[in-house]
Each structure stands twice: as structure tokens, then as C-alpha cells.
Specification:
alpha/beta, Rossmann fold, ProC C-terminal domain-like fold, eight-stranded mixed sheet, 12 helices, elongated, disordered N terminus
């Protein structure tokens, strides 16, 4: 399967409708165009004209609503990239814009396949994807799940579309997407908080605030790149930094205590998973 760095042109297999051109929708669209998708094959449905204007200038069709799109052959895929609370209004005319062979690919957290089947029909091909914000720089992580109606070809297309902005994995149980949302979807925010806390702790230890923030940002970014490029597990990379009886060992004694970072992260992920399940109910 071609990934984000592939030179192979992205073949959409027909028209693509992107519903929603916010941060994640725009990141996906940039990824598809970067991979060589033809602008003439893509229509963007976005009520805020300023969000779609840069793409319309590149030859994409733009409409404020699904029912305002020009008539044509049914979409090969409709990508739903709006917030869950805006979904009902956004896809009110979705069934008319989709054909019997249209793949419905949703990146909205908390909206189940059953909810989309109620709109598009029980035999509609549905794939749910949970990406995260590093998709904006081609380093996203997306986990996908398909319903029984999605064909192998449609699942391959969904994977290709999400691989344009990073790594892709699949789960067979839709319920697991709640935990994926907690770990991967929210994960960047946890890492950004780590940078904030690391910088604040450095300032408390006497560093100038601007220098401490610069160190924290570069350290987390560098560690992320190191773990991405290394074949070693994260635990081994941690051990490689830790000298016996050294300064890092003293810090880890605090972070790895029974009430330390792991216990805190367990509670945080459990809370986010519970909330994801509430949103889906």
C-alpha cells in the first residue's frame, strides 16, 4: 500500500466529496493533492468560504452544502470531516449525493457505523477512521474499522486516503475506536502538555523561561524522531539514556513510582475512553 512518501499518483477511482474543510479536512486534502490526486475529481463541501477558497483556487469544486454540488456521477468516496455535533446538519442531503457504490469514510469521533447506515442505508460501505493532528505535517496515525458492506477495494482506497497523511492500522472491533480516540486522537495534546510541564519545571529549576521552553520543545521533538527511526523498543531507548545512579535515574525514580506517570496516564486514558463511549451512545 503506498504511504505518505510514495511517488505513486493517488487514484481516487472516481469523484471524491470532502465534507468539511477544517484543520483535519484541509490536512487530508493537502495530502491527497501532494500525492497527485486530480483537483477536478474533488469537491469540497464547506460553509465557511474562506476555508475552502485556497483549494477552490487550485481547481476544486466548492459548495456550501451537499445539495448545492453540481449534478454528476455519484462519488466513489465521501469523506466526512466535520465535528460530531455538526454531522447531522452536514450530511442531511448525503444520501442523494452518494450512489450505491459510494464509500462513506468518516473521521468523526463518537459517530458509529450504525448512525451512518441509518442515513446512507444498511448496505452502504462505511469505514470509520480515527486520525490525529500530526496529519498536518504528514506524521499522523490513523486507525480504521470497516463494516461488512465495505469491499476489499473500498478498504484499500480508505487506507490509501489516510496513508497520505501518515501511518495506518486497522481494528476489527468498532468498540476499540473509543480507546484509539483516547490514546491516538488525544495523544498529541498529552505530548504538548508534557512540553509545557517540562519547560515549567526547567524554569522552576532556574532556567530562563524562553530557554527552558526551547529546550523542552527540541528535546521532545528529537526524542520523537529518534523513536520513529529506531528499531529499538521505547523501554530500551529509555534505558540507553539512564546511567546507573545518575541524574536521569533520580528523575525516573519519581516518574516510575506506583503513583507516578503510568498511574496518571492510565487514569487519563480511562477517562477519555469513557467519554468517547458516552459520545457514541
Amino acid at each position: 500500500m503506498p504511504g505518505a512518501g510514495s511517488d505513486e499518483k493517488l487514484d481516487l477511482g472516481g469523484p471524491l466529496i470532502l465534507v468539511g474543510c477544517g484543520k483535519m479536512g484541509a490536512a487530508l486534502l493537502e495530502g491527497w493533492l501532494r500525492r497527485g490526486a486530480a483537483p477536478r475529481d474533488i469537491a469540497v463541501v464547506e460553509p465557511h468560504a474562506e476555508s475552502a477558497a485556497p483549494f477552490a483556487a487550485r481547481g476544486l469544486v466548492h459548495a456550501a452544502r451537499l445539495d448545492e454540488l453540481p449534478a454528476g456521477r455519484p462519488a466513489a468516496v465521501m469523506v466526512l470531516a466535520v465535528k460530531p455535533q455538526q454531522m447531522d446538519a452536514a450530511i442531511g442531503a448525503g444520501a442523494a449525493a452518494a450512489g450505491p457504490g459510494t464509500l462513506i469514510l468518516s473521521i468523526a469521533a463518537g459517530r458509529t457505523m450504525g448512525a451512518f447506515e441509518a442515513v446512507f442505508g444498511g448496505d452502504a460501505a462505511i469505514v470509520r477512521a480515527m486520525p490525529n493532528t500530526p496529519a498536518a505535517v504528514g506524521r499522523g496515525m490513523s486507525v480504521l474499522c470497516a463494516n461488512a458492506a465495505a469491499s476489499s477495494r473500498q478498504k484499500a482506497l480508505a487506507e490509501t486516503l489516510m496513508a497520505a497523511v501518515g501511518e495506518v492500522a486497522w481494528v476489527g472491533d468498532e468498540a476499540l475506536l473509543d480507546a484509539v480516540t483516547a490514546v491516538s486522537g488525544g495523544g498529541p495534546a498529552y505530548v504538548f502538555l508534557l512540553i509545557e510541564c517540562l519547560a515549567r519545571a526547567g524554569a522552576e529549576a532556574g532556567l530562563p523561561e524562553d530557554l527552558s521552553m526551547r529546550i523542552a520543545r527540541a528535546t521532545v521533538a528529537g526524542a520523537g524522531e529518534l523513536v520513529r527511526l529506531s528499531d529499538l523498543p521505547a523501554a530500551k531507548l529509555r534505558e540507553n539514556v539512564t546511567s546507573p545512579a545518575g541524574t536521569t535515574q533520580e528523575a525516573l525514580r519519581v516518574l516510575m513510582a506506583p503513583d507516578g506517570l503510568q498511574a496518571l496516564m492510565d487514569r487519563a486514558i480511562a477517562a477519555a475512553t469513557r467519554r468517547a463511549r458516552e459520545l457514541a451512545s
